[in-house]
Design brief:
alpha+beta, Endonuclease, Chain A, two-stranded antiparallel ribbon
Length: 147
């Protein structure tokens, strides 16, 4: 059953990829040269983004991060191991001078907030995109209202 669980090109990851691309940022995917093979890699900025599933990576205080009721010892060990591995990977990347942003599956519903977080992490106000200069909301590709 677990063989059917994908680690690349998941729906949440594809949503983040489309959003970041629409903001004007270009990236590499799943670099095997970096610890943890980050989902999105921005080599020129030395920044990476991981898109974590709340269940698999145990998002704190999230309703999707519940422990299955059967084989609880197995699942506790497996999921705790994932969290420990995530911590080691993040420390290794930051130790090498990389910026790390973790986006959680449950946070992807609020696309405006997701857009702001991604943009702030990747370049903030210094790296405005063409859409922003023209006053276009990249999520709907329409001019923003000036209300």
């Amino acid at each position: 059953m677990m063989a059917a669980v994908r680690s690349k090109n998941t729906e949440p990851e594809m949503l983040v990829r489309r959003l970041v691309h629409s903001l004007g940022y270009r990236y590499r995917l799943h670099s095997t040269k970096l610890p943890g093979r980050p989902d999105l890699v921005f080599p020129g900025k030395r920044k990476v983004i991981f898109v974590h599933g709340c269940f698999w990576h145990r998002h704190a205080n999230c309703s999707k991060a519940t422990l299955p009721k059967t084989r609880t010892e197995f699942w506790e060990g497996k999921l705790d191991g994932n969290v420990a591995r995530d911590r080691r990977i993040e420390q290794a990347l930051t130790g090498e001078g990389w910026g790390v942003l973790i986006l959680w599956q449950c946070e992807l519903q609020d696309t405006v907030r997701l857009s702001r977080r991604s943009h702030d992490f990747l370049g903030g106000t210094n790296g405005t995109t063409a859409n922003e200069r023209e006053g276009v909301n990249p999520l709907v590709n329409e001019p923003e209202s000036s209300a």
